[in-house]
Amino acid sequence: MTRRERPPLEPGKVYGTFADASGTTFVLWASAGGHRVGVRLHHDEGPEIAVVCWPFDPTQRLLRWQGLLWSSNPTEWKQEVRDRAFRTIDRVLGARPSGEARP
User: Fold this and answer.
1) Which of 28, 49, 74, 76 could form a disulfide with 70 if both were Cys (CB 3.0 to 4.6 A apart)?
2) How much of the chain, in percent, has pLDDT values that exceed 90?
3) Terminal CA-to-CA distance of the chain, rounded, Å?
4) Which one-letter DSSP state was computed for residue 18?
5) How confident is the model over 42-51, as a mean pLDDT?
6) 59-77 pLDDT, tens digit each
């Protein structure tokens, strides 16, 4: 199923949570258009620190940091948040590369 054939995510729906090594909680929620996943700090109404573009396709997926505060954090922290967000998305959405068959 191609990107255009996939139905969008339910806008505003929380699709999972995860915590970093220090115990900070992050919430993954669908954007208003349903085609991206926002990463919010602490709860679903917390500040959005990043947006995951193309959440269904791990081969093209990327994370955009929102604002100078978050993008200026240490590289190790950003990598940890990115990896945990992507693993949670894979688990919750069952994300697979485009063209790969689902069992």
Assistant:
1) 49
2) 50
3) 13
4) E
5) 87
6) 889 999 998 878 788 999 9
**Cβ distance 22 to 16 under 8 Å?**
no
Give whole-number Cα distances, 59 to 35, 41, 47, 88, in Å. Answer: 16, 25, 27, 16
Question: Cβ neighbours of residue 57 under 8 Å, at least 6 residues apart?
Answer: 3, 95, 96, 97, 98
Cα dihedral sign, 25-35-63-86 = positive
With 0-12 CB in 10 A as exposed, 13-18 as middle and 19+ as buried, what is 40?
buried
CA distance 4 to 23: 37
Q: Would you state the pLDDT for residue 101?
A: 44
